[in-house]
Design a protein that fits this description.
Elements (H helix, E strand, L loop, with lengths): L6 E6 L9 E5 L6 E8 L2 H9 L9 E6 L8 E5 L7 E6 L4 E7 L8 E4 L5 E8 L4 E6 L4 E6 L15 E6 L7 H17 L5
Antiparallel strand pairs: 1-2, 1-12, 2-3, 3-4, 4-5, 5-6, 6-7, 7-8, 8-9, 9-10, 10-11, 11-12
Length: 198
Amino acid sequence: MLLERQTFLVKERVAMFKLTDHYDIFDPESGEQIGFAQEKIGGFAKFLRFFFSKYKTMFPTTVEVKEDDESDPVITIKRRFAIVRYQVDVIDKNEKFVGSFKSKLFSLGGGFTVHNPEGEQIADVQGNWKGWDFKLLDMNGNELGRVNKKWAGMMKEMFTSADNYVISLDESVGANPGLAALLLAAGLAIDINFKENG
């Protein structure tokens, strides 16, 4: 199962003139592909992106994470329309709202807060999008996971591109599908919101 893992290598598919993003997800130890994430937007949204690409991160978007083409999404990530602060909602495989990410108004590093379905902050994502080193911290400051471009395993040769990064749960957390879903969503949220602005 995709969300029962502790580490994910995410590789963005690079293409000329693309209007939607597509990511392949690998086991960074074995190199086996274990899933993919694909952006789903309508025709009008594609029209806006084509003519107003500079403002891409302002427009709503949906990213579905699947294990294979035949399966239903294990998580769905939805970004709302935003001008100053964006919000990204996370939906599980049962179409249940499980949490959201909200950008910080005054964050030089590009961090954001993590909220439960009731809107209460439960974690914090801190880091620097230019350096691609982010930490997911609980409200006591304990590290739950990390999103960065450093990996010493079998797949480290893939880190020649700015479009690849590793998402990893801290060893102390163990296998935790709920936390894995949030962290995987956080990594993709960083990519679709911050990297595109870089």
